[in-house]
Specification:
The protein is of the alpha/beta class. Helix 6 links the parallel strand 4 and strand 5. The chain is built from eleven helices and eight strands. It has an eight-stranded parallel beta barrel, surrounded by nine helices. Bound molecules: glyceraldehyde-3-phosphate and zinc ion. The site of zinc ion has 5 residues, from loops. The site of glyceraldehyde-3-phosphate has 13 residues, from strand 3 and strand 8.
Length: about 280
């Protein structure tokens, strides 16, 4: 199937009360694991690349891998830029063929975030590319102090932001963090419900690695329709490769460890698809 943008899949998820998994990929085996898992589960899926990953390999390389893998399956596959923070990030991905981008201006002063996000939306609307934006800050790798509720998304501001920018989806800050959790997080579900009641656009949950099944299901019940998962896949990959290398110090074929690691990543993706309820929704 050809690559699609994320608008249609997120609209379906919003309507039917499930969420689409957006899985960060690092290399060819991650791309295969995510798309093959989605095919097995008959689920729509979003493959996404961070700006750092795009320094490791180009958007052209990732889109080629995603396209050739998506061509072999029947489920809808989208490729999305995760946490793009400059117009340059956005444009290089669109030029390569991405049909969905995140412009993350959450660290900018509010009016600047509105202005720059609106510009990205205007550019993208004319070429049928979906745009996700962020309000508030999701701590961890983005550099904000952990668990600072002052950085949570304000529902009034979210409403104003979506109205003024026309963004297709909005990442909200309700207590999740990027990376590994030091303790079980306490999510601000009431805030999520309030935001949901104010705006129509699909809502996105970042920092989903390490959340419990209950966390994820409650967030989906309250209106989250895209769930971003990166760290758990990286852990599955790294732990498998590390163990294989320790147990097999004389093996020099990288495919051996990579094949096992790809299977482990695939298992995590399938588990998440079941929790998000996107299985059989393709
Ligand atoms: O944008 C990517 C995600 O928010 C992933 O977060 O690494 O905590 O799963 P995570
Ligand atoms: Zn994120």
């Amino acid at each position: 199937m050809a690559i699609v943008n994320t608008n249609e899949m997120l609209a379906d998820a919003r309507h039917k009360h499930y969420a689409v998994g957006a899985f960060n990929v690092e290399n060819m085996e991650f791309v295969q694991a995510v798309i093959w898992a989605a095919e097995e589960m008959n689920s729509p899926v979003i493959v996404q690349t961070s700006v750092n990953t795009l320094k490791y390999a180009t958007p052209e390389m990732f889109i080629s891998m995603v396209k050739s893998c998506a061509d072999t399956v029947k489920v809808p596959v989208a490729i999305h830029l995760d946490h793009g923070s400059t117009l340059f990030n956005v444009m290089t991905c669109i030029k390569a063929g991405y049909k969905s981008v995140m412009f993350d201006g959450s660290m900018l002063p509010y009016e600047k975030n509105v202005e720059q996000t609106r510009l990205v939306v205007e550019l993208c609307k004319s070429i049928d590319v979906s745009v996700e934006a962020e309000l508030g800050a999701i701590s961890g790798k983005e550099g904000a102090p952990e668990e600072s509720t002052s950085l949570y998304t304000d529902p009034d501001v979210a409403e104003d932001f979506v109205n003024r920018t026309g963004v297709d989806s909005l990442a909200v800050s309700i207590g999740t963090v990027h990376g590994l959790y030091k303790a079980t997080p306490k999510l601000d579900y009431n805030r999520l419900s309030t935001i949901r009641n104010r705006i129509e656009a699909p809502l996105v949950l970042h920092g989903a690695s390490g959340l419990t099944i209950d966390h994820l299901r409650e967030c989906i019940a309250r209106g989250i329709t895209k769930v971003n998962i990166a760290t758990e896949l990286r852990c599955a990959w790294s732990e498998t490769v590390r163990k294989y290398s320790i147990d097999n110090p004389k093996v020099y074929d990288p495919k051996k460890a990579s094949k096992l690691a790809r299977e482990e990543v695939m298992k995590v993706v399938k588990e998440k698809i079941l929790i998000l309820g996107s299985n059989s929704m393709a």
